Fold this sequence. Notes:
By secondary structure, the protein is an alpha+beta fold. The chain is built from 4 helices and 5 strands. The protein has a 3-stranded antiparallel beta sheet, with no helix packed on it.
Amino acid sequence: MSPAKAGLIFFCRADLISTHRNMPVTEKTTESTKPRRTFDSAYGFSFSIAVGLALFIAGLVISLTLGEGTSIGLIFGIPLLVAGLVIPFFMMRDLFKTNEIKQPCPNCGATIRTSDATLQLRCPSCEKVINVRDKKLILVE
């Protein structure tokens, strides 16, 4: 292949690549994106434990290093220690409460009472398996 042809082919391919990159968003091919993770109860629990641990360690370090000779270490260190113990409970308070669900069975209409912590149950009347999602009863097919 002659150098002129090779340069022409390179120029054409470079032109195609550069025009592909400069295409408007509507003309680009759609790319599949991964669903984003949500901040569910497991993440919330881990995050609250991490925040509490960081506050507790910070309070402990301040109390032990600055608290020996002055009261400044105790003024800032002790509240951080207490905050490190108490704040995780405030952050996880939604995990500790449950809501009662009282709805009719989607299959037979019998009243079912359960909590929102239940994932799956069996109807006492018709013996069908029912999932509990977002405080709603959904019949398993």
